[in-house]
TrEMBL record:
This is DUF4102 domain-containing protein. Residues 98-179 form the Core-binding (CB) domain. Keywords: DNA integration, DNA recombination, DNA-binding. Residues 202-383 form the Tyr recombinase domain. It comes from Rhizobium straminoryzae. One of its GO terms (biological process) is DNA integration. GO terms for molecular function: DNA binding.
């Protein structure tokens, strides 16, 4: 006779274990201590076997019956239900072991092997750490969009909207890597794209008026602070690289005879080697700098730790001491100044200017071709730019 919830609740323990059948091998075993344990008996390959399904009422009558039907379906396929249950437990344990932190650390090791810049690796690790406390220990397969939104909202509450956006993007990279390596099937960050507050875009300050630019140049050439800082700013004017590219420059990259600075792919934003022509004024500054730091590895070593480079704040701090606010001038702004004034001159092709700035568009093959094609023009442009900046420095007061 089939069991009912009323009958199950009324079952009382006796001095020995008693069985109460629901049919089809499903029964409840009532222990002398009063526990009501679901058991399912079945035959597989001629042998009688019994599975434990849990205790009543934690496992309801309806759930126990569903388990029975599942076992019947497995038997019909020739699958041993006990072995199937064991494999499911192992898979669950393995899934629980694959946490977000485990996959994230593996991803960081991967990009390190691929030669990503140290700064890129550190930035990604920092961004991931902002979410690690909330989702790091969770099985990556089980993490939901709502869980990821918790650290993102906390970051937004501090007004760091751009950081929140970057954390979402970087966490998404981990999920997509987990999908590619068969650890999960879904990227829950995709659904969060419209949930975050869009940051206000603020362009880096740059001087693009010739007269104002001349005033900035006079202040730099007259700077009385550390000579290495003055020379770093002078080279930013003449060469307009990304500030990090200059700060991390090494003497082995400078060819004085050929007047070329070769930046390795590992330090370039687009992961491609980049060559810059050196004008005579730039070479003169480098010669002066070599007398100060040429005995070491870096052009601009840290004052107290020669094996490290100049701080990223050094040049901007010098500009502040000269009286230029953050809204007026930044070290990165020299790139925009050069781009604007070079294009305004009308003397140089836009592609040559873009090649000198190491910008890469969608058609990377075309851009790589242009880098070679416009080398001669870029050499002339470097000399012209050095002459023009000198004229603006001396005549636009």
């Amino acid at each position: 006779m089939a069991l009912t919830d009323t009958a199950l609740k009324a079952l009382k323990p006796t001095g020995r274990p008693t069985k109460h059948s629901d049919g089809g091998g499903l029964h409840v075993l009532v222990t002398p201590q009063g526990s009501k344990l679901w058991r399912l008996s079945y035959r597989f390959e001629g042998k009688q076997q019994t599975m434990a399904l849990g205790a009543y009422p934690a496992v309801s009558l309806a759930n126990a019956r569903r388990e029975r039907e599942g076992v019947k379906a497995l038997l019909a396929k020739g699958v041993n239900p006990a072995q199937h249950a064991k494999l499911e437990r192992i898979a669950k344990q393995a899934s629980n072991a694959v946490t977000f932190k485990v996959v994230a650390e593996e991803y960081l090791r991967k990009i390190a092997k691929e030669g990503k810049a140290d700064a890129t690796q550190s930035k990604k690790a920092w961004l991931l750490d902002l979410a690690m406390g909330d989702i790091g220990s969770r099985p990556i397969r089980d993490i939901t969009a709502a869980e990821i939104l918790v650290p993102l909202r906390r970051i937004e509450a501090k007004g760091n909207y751009e950081t929140a956006r970057r954390v979402r993007s970087t966490v998404g990279q981990i999920f997509r890597y987990a999908i590619a390596t068969a650890r999960t099937d879904n990227d829950p960050t995709f659904g969060l794209k419209g949930a975050l507050t869009a940051p206000t875009v603020s362009h880096r300050a740059a001087v693009t008026d010739k007269k104002a630019f001349g005033g900035l140049l006079r202040a730099i050439w007259a700077y009385e602070g550390m000579p290495e800082t003055r020379m770093a700013l002078q080279l930013m004017v003449l060469l307009y690289p990304r500030p990090g590219e200059l700060r991390q420059a090494q003497w082995s990259e400078i060819d004085f005879e050929k007047a070329i600075w070769t930046l390795p792919a590992s330090r370039m934003k687009m992961r491609r080697e980049h060559r810059k022509p050196l004008s005579q004024p730039a070479l003169a500054i480098l010669e002066e700098l070599r007398s100060l730091t040429g005995h070491g590895k870096f052009l601009f070593p840290a004052v107290t730790l020669p094996m490290r480079t100049m701080s990223e704040n050094t040049m901007n701090s010098a500009l502040r001491r000269m009286g230029f606010t953050q809204q007026e001038a930044t070290s990165h702004g020299f790139r925009a100044s050069a781009s604007s004034l070079l294009n305004e001159s009308g003397k140089w092709s836009p592609d040559a200017i873009e090649a000198e700035l190491a910008h890469m568009g969608a058609d990377e093959v075309r851009k790589a071709y242009h880098r070679a094609l416009y080398w001669e023009e870029r050499v002339k442009m470097a000399d012209w730019w050095a002459e023009e900046t000198n004229i603006w420095r001396e005549t636009t007061g």
